[in-house]
Batch of 2 targets.
Target 1
Amino acid sequence: MSYVRDVGALARKDLLLELRARDTLPAMLLFVAAVFVVFHFALPGTPSRLETSGLLWVAILFTALLGLGRAFVPEREQGTLDGLVLAPCDRSAIWLAKSLATLAFLVAAEVVALPLYALFFHRVGGATVAAVALADIGICAVGTFLGAMAVATRARDLLLPLLFLPLAVPIVVGAVGASVVVSPGRYLGFLALYDLLFAVVCWASFEYVVAE
Amino acid sequence: MLVARRLGKRYGEKRVLRGIDLELPRGGFLVVTGPNGSGKTTLLRICAGLAQPTGGTIERSAVRAQVGYLGHEPLVYRELTALENLELYGRLYRVVERRERIGMLLERFGLWDARHERVASYSRGMTQRLALCRVLLHEPELFVLDEPYSALDEAGAELLDAQLAELRAERTFLLATHEPVRVEPFASGRLALAA
């Protein structure tokens, strides 16, 4: 129960910081909207559902990268990670809280992105929404973990996409598959398995990422 | 409380600490001095559990919850208010009667009236006072303080003196400073690091 309270306190802090600083969410919203407008005018004719599904996932991944890149910025700039690491709570609570806060920002960006996608390209079906929900969990779990690793290095801005994008390939495969096939169950199951596997790995090993 | 033997620390090729021996019994007050670059901060980070030595051994009887660490950074969020910062740490450290304790510390360090202001609007001295409130909040057994007087005006420094005097008998202190004279009345030992 105290673990849940710790996660709640840390996630609340991250949401409050974003509410005050407004560094991340406006950038994500602007970016995802701009990407769809660019795609809309850049693509000739009427692109197929398969093609536009790919574009949707490219937009979501890069929008998520914007948020993930900012996830540990307050801790880096203000050196507060030491304070969190020293606190007697389970260190995985830091990862889980950051993942939840990033998930909230990503979902907010998608609330704008999906209607725009529907407006410019194709209707968004239930399978796509389910794929987005499952993919978001994986993106935020893995991305936050890698963000914590990258933030300790000098090449942090370069390192995060280099580490994250290869690990996000299965998410894209599963999500595009779920968005275009008639029976998406297999792909949604694959995304759920990815989430479960990587969430457990990140949860169990975050301690070693933040400890020197 | 804290025993280190032949403690060493390297960052790549650069050797920061070599062969440090220290013994800090419960109730002790060890003052660490030395010029810039002598490894005071690294030693304190190791003692607080924030860094691992690359040589030697360290034994600390205090667990994480019993350590109060003040580093060069205040470890508070600039976009949060003083109250929100202390609430966060109070929750993480499971401080009992959190609100009362936070209120008492903010009063004592002269920050009560500014408790709802964001730390970003604080002066460096006020931020240091808040950092001291954060360190004292969970009533640690072992205080690891790196230049605690930095940025404090005379009134702030006197507040810190009073706090050290109050806690001196029952807590253990490891304190790095460029002003050893100031903490001389409290000290039970001194460790001078060479550059």
Note: DSSP finds nine helices and no strands in chain A.
Target 2
Amino acid sequence: MSVRIVSGLIWIALGALVALGLVSVAGPIGGFVAPIGFLAIGAFVLSRKNDPPLRVGSFPVPHTILGALTIALACGSLYAIFVMAPVEVQMGIVQKIFYFHVPSAYAMYVAFVTSAVGSAVYLWKRDERWDAIAVAGAEVGLVFCLIVLITGPLWARKAWGTYWTWDPRLTTTLLAGMIYVAFNVLRGLGQAGEAEKRFASALGFLGLLLLPVIHYSVQRWRGQHPTVITRAGGGIHPDMVPALVSGFLLFTAFVALLVWSRYRIERVKQRVATLELEAAESGLLEEGS
Amino acid sequence: MRLNRSLLAASLAGVLFCLASPVLVAHADVVEPDDAAESRSATFEAVSGAQQEDVPGGPLLVAAYGAVLVLMLGYVLYLGSLTAGASRDLERLERALEARKPGERKSSRGEEIAAEIHAAKDASKGA
């Protein structure tokens, strides 16, 4: 049994451990959904090849299956949200934003943790594969962070009467988003050299330190942000549970699909750049061609 | 072997991170809901019968789900453009190789690189 398989199994076991912890802390919903992220990462680690083929636009079978699963989950989730789930008594129909807002935040965590792990290992090993993971996680996480920061204020307009307040969770989420904006801007400025990659990796790892602060800010510094599915919350109506669970499943599949896709593209870009350099050094290319 | 070690190290780092999280939970100050606003932020209950809304929620809901749709579609299109860019780079490399005469290739490694670029281009066409 290779160390790679052992690593994947450790992640899956970690998911079970986190499940046990979150069941006691955040109830069955937290215990159910959190391990999925770790399972996704475990599957990602297990499915990785040491040297992926240089192919552009091709879709391997697992990728296609995951894409089809995501589309099916999207249909199921929208049905559960708009047909099955009842309207909330105080906030009305706008409460249905909750079913995409919270899973987006969860997907953001998964992607940013993936990026931070990739960044940390890249700083240690200087392996381009981990750099590609860091880039993929940071970029996909930023997309989900944008979703959180757009859907949250639209919900808040109805619930709080204002689009934005400097609530601890809102502020820390915005700060995390800015850190990963910096990461992506740094990596997006032309061909990133070794120094840019290392600096961006340090930023990616710094973002990881902020994630627990975001998560526990509503308990530590009680602001206005809802705590419905946390230990302090009163939970949700039983008829709303399928909509929320399907949202978590959808965004788990979505974040896995997007990170995997972005990782493959980054690896192709890295190998094309390497081939170009080697071709030039071998005299296959004209100067500047 | 280096990759295997790094995977193991990343896994152990994840274990440490997650084991540290409950410590933060244990020290968190839990505040119980004590008024209507607190109750609203702590629990969601289903409505019974018709209800009038002071701030219309429909446009906000449509805007939120529309934003999600636009962002997701936009990002998928962006990934498509990145893929197209990589295809263009491969085509450029192939054209540059074809412009050279075979005799000008200077090393066996050069031949390997050329073969790999051609194989990648073929894979791209077949996709």
Note: The radius of gyration of chain B is 29 Å.
